Amino acid sequence: MQSLNAPLAQQQQHQQQLFAMSGQPFAEKNQQSQITGSGKGIAMTNPQMMAKQILNQPGRMPQLGMLQGNSSGAGNNNDALLEENYLMNQNMEMLLNQQQSQLQQAQLQQQQQNNRQMPQLQQQQQQQQQQQQQQQQQQHQQNQNQQLQNMNLNASMNSNLPPGLNVIPQQQQQHGLNPSLDNQYSKQISSIQNNNNGPPVMILPPNHLLIREVWKNNLFAEFVAIRRLSARYNNISISTEFAGTIARPIGNFRSKTDYHYQTMRSNVDLLNPIQIGLSLSDSSGNKPENEPSTWQFNFNFDVAKEMISADSLDLLKKSGINFDNHQAMGIDSFEFSQLMMDSGLILDKSITWVTFHAAYDFGFLVHLLMNTCMPNNMQDFQWWVNQLVPCFYDLNLLYKVIKEFKQQIQPQQPQQPPQQQITLSNLADELGIPRFPLFNTTGGQSLLTLLSFSQLGNVSKHKLPNGLDFNSYQNLIHGINAE
């Protein structure tokens, strides 16, 4: 009995070793593999059957060499299989190392290629930037040419429109410029010349050249616009058109300035203004973009009743003034003075007034606002001006200071031509402001005065050659209280 159980025990021990290698308990597998009905409980298994069962189990990979070695009884095959597995691992490591080396080499080649392409990309980017800069410069030049064309539009459109030459009509100002007229005024760009060769020509935006004609039918509407714009555009220039100097005082005078004042006072009391021009801008010279900021007020003027010489009448008619329109549609001076007092431009220290002929411009303005005769002495007149216009500059006085300082530095030689006269046109030429036909009108004169003042301030930083700033000549009138 013992001899029969010995082989059985050896077989069970061998099976336990196999299942221990496969990771499954022998008892569990032995219970599943027992055949009922044998009466002995002996498992009917062999190595081949065990190998099939182990291989069919999911997730398990026994060592086949052990199974084969057990089935064939050759234990030496196990060492050969281990050696083969070791060689396979070595081959796999070599393959992985080769793949990693190839990957690193490919990355290095890609990086070198990128490094070679970087200068080319940078060069292409620089070329693109240069092309963009050239395009921007060309576009800027085209915009400047377009501005020059728009600025000269007045000269081509309104050559026959009274009472002011080249003044944009009201309907055209509302609807903008007509592109179909480009061919008409583009030919006239070459006629824009600056007589002074020193400074470059100042390029004026088209909106700076918009001038609104004001008659009695649109007087109230235009003062509404002036009242609205005066809150932002607090620099205003004034220019007055009148019949000229028709009276000279006689007698003894305390000083030369007193004589000048008495001459101005006599003519202002005897005459009525024909036109008054006003122009608005901010402290930097900027103007509204989509609406006029310069107005030309046409007053009621009857040549049959007013005092005017024949020579002055012919000269005014040649300048484009239609006295029939002034008699029929002219503005009443009393209505103008009332609206001016309510415009926000008077009695305000934040408003800066600019004029080139302060004596007559402020003389007619004070006369209209006071609605009475001029003061007898210039001290009272100066008091009224300071009350109504608290801050103003006489551009004529500033220009004279500049000219006198230049003459002191560079004395005139006998062979040199005489010095230019102190006129608004000469000042504009020295500042590089081009001459336009509309500057010959009363509204254009106020516009040119404001442009010259703004340009002079920008160029000189509000400093005069004698070391003084503009404020040193504030509220001084050339010929009245300053020489």
TrEMBL record:
Q: What is this protein called?
A: poly(A)-specific ribonuclease
Q: Which residues form a coiled coil?
A: 89-151
One Pfam match, given by its short name, reads: CAF1
Class of enzymatic activity (EC top level): hydrolase
Q: Does the keyword Zinc-finger apply?
A: no
Homology family: Belongs to the CAF1 family.
List the biased-composition ranges (Polar residues).
Answer: 168-181
- The answer to keyword Acetylation applying to this record is no
EC assignment: the record states 3.1.13.4
What GO cellular component is one of the record's annotations? P-body
What reaction does this enzyme carry out catalytically? Answer: Exonucleolytic cleavage of poly(A) to 5'-AMP
Q: Alphabetically, which GO biological process terms does the record hold?
A: nuclear-transcribed mRNA poly(A) tail shortening; positive regulation of transcription elongation by RNA polymerase II; transcription elongation by RNA polymerase II
Gene that this polypeptide is encoded by = TBLA0F00160
UniProt-recorded Gene Ontology molecular function terms: metal ion binding; poly(A)-specific ribonuclease activity; RNA binding
Identify the keywords attached in UniProt to this record, alphabetized. Answer: Coiled coil, Cytoplasm, Exonuclease, Hydrolase, Metal-binding, Nuclease, Nucleus, RNA-binding, Transcription, Transcription regulation
Could you tell me which residues belong to the region Disordered?
A: 154-181
Protein's cellular compartments: Cytoplasm; Nucleus
